[in-house]
Amino acid sequence: MVQRKRVMGALVTATVFMSLVAGCGAKTTETTSATTAPQATKAAEAAKAGDGKVVVGFSQIGAESGWRGAETQSIQDTAKADPTIDLKFSDAQQKQENQIKAIRSFIAQKVDVIAMAPVVETGWEAVLKEAKDAKIPVILVDRGIDKKNEDLYTSFIGSDFIVEGQNAAKAMAEHLGDKGNIVELEGTVGASAATDRKKGFDDEIKKHPNIKIVKSQSGDFNRATGKQVMEAILKSPEGKDIQGVYAHNDDMALGAIQAIEEAGKKPGSDVKIVSIDGIKEAFEAVKAGKLNTVVECNPLLGPQLFQAAKDLKAGKQLPKWIKSNEDVFTGQKAIDALPNRKY
Ligand code: GYE
C-alpha cells in the first residue's frame, strides 16, 4: 500500500481531472492518446481486431469531494501511463441515470471490462444483466451494490466501510472521554459508503451508553451541504449542547468546521471532530487543531483497477473483494504524515 502510494505520487498530474469536472450532463472522454480512435465504433473495431489493448469503460459518479477528485486522477493517470490500456471515462454528475447510460454505451462499444463506482446501492439489476448477457465483466470500484445482485459483478475493489465507521466511533469515544452528545453527518443517501459507515459507527458507539447521537442527517458527501446542514443543526434545540461531530467524509467535516467557527465555538476542542477519507486538507485541519481524527480511505485505486482488468482479459480468476489497506490518524501521527500525503 505504501509502495502503491509512492508509485502514484510519481504519476500525478493536475490537468486531466480539471478538464473533466466542467460542463453538465454525462461526459465521456478518451484518456489514452496514441492510436485510439475517438469514435466509439473505431475503438470497438480496434478492440475486436485485438490490437493488444485492454479496453476499460469507467463510469465515475461525479466530483463531489476531494476524495473523488483523487480517485479520478489516479484512474486517469494510471491509464495514461500504460500503453496497453484504453480508458473510456464517463462522469455521471451524481446521477444514476447517467451511469446507466454510460454502461449501455460501453456495452455497445464492446469494451473488454466495465468498471463503475455506483452512486447508490440499488437499481442496477437490469443494466448489469445486459452486461452479463454481453459477456462483459463488471468491476465495482470503491462503492458496492446490494448483496442480492452479487452475481452481477466480478469483483469489488475498495474499502471496508463498516470497519471505517467502527474506527471513527472508537476515536470519538476516546476524544469525548466516553460521554457527550454528537451529530452525525451522513453521506449520500443510499450510497454503500454512507450506509456502512453509519452502521459501523452507530453499532460501535452503542457500546458507550453515555454518548448519544442527537442528530443524524445527510450532507451528501460535499462541503457546501455539510456546512449548511451543520448550520441548521447548530440553530436547532439539539445543536445547543453538542460535544462531537462525526462526518462520513472529510469535505463535510471541513464544512462543519466552518459552521462551528461561525457559530462562535472552537472545532477540535469545544466540539471534537472525526471524519473519514484522509485528504490533505483534513490533515492540515488536524495540524491546525480543528479536526481530531482522520480515518483513512484510499482513493488511489487506478493501479489495482487496471491490474484487475488485465487479469480478467488474460482469463484469470479474481477475488470477489480486493480490499484496500487503511490507517487511522490522530494528533501528532497525522501531523507527521502530512508531508507524505498523496491526495
Ligand atoms: O469517502 C467520499 C466520496 O465512495 C468511498 O465517496 C467513496 C466516498 C468518499 O465522495 O468522500
Automatic annotation (TrEMBL):
Signal peptide: 1-22
Domain Periplasmic binding protein, residue spans: 57-316
Record carries keyword Ribosomal protein: no
First-listed, main subcellular location of the protein, grouped into a coarse class: other
UniProt keyword list: Signal
UniProt subcellular location: Cell envelope
Family, as annotated: Belongs to the bacterial solute-binding protein 2 family.
Protein name according to UniProt: ABC transporter substrate-binding protein
Organism: Paenibacillus chondroitinus
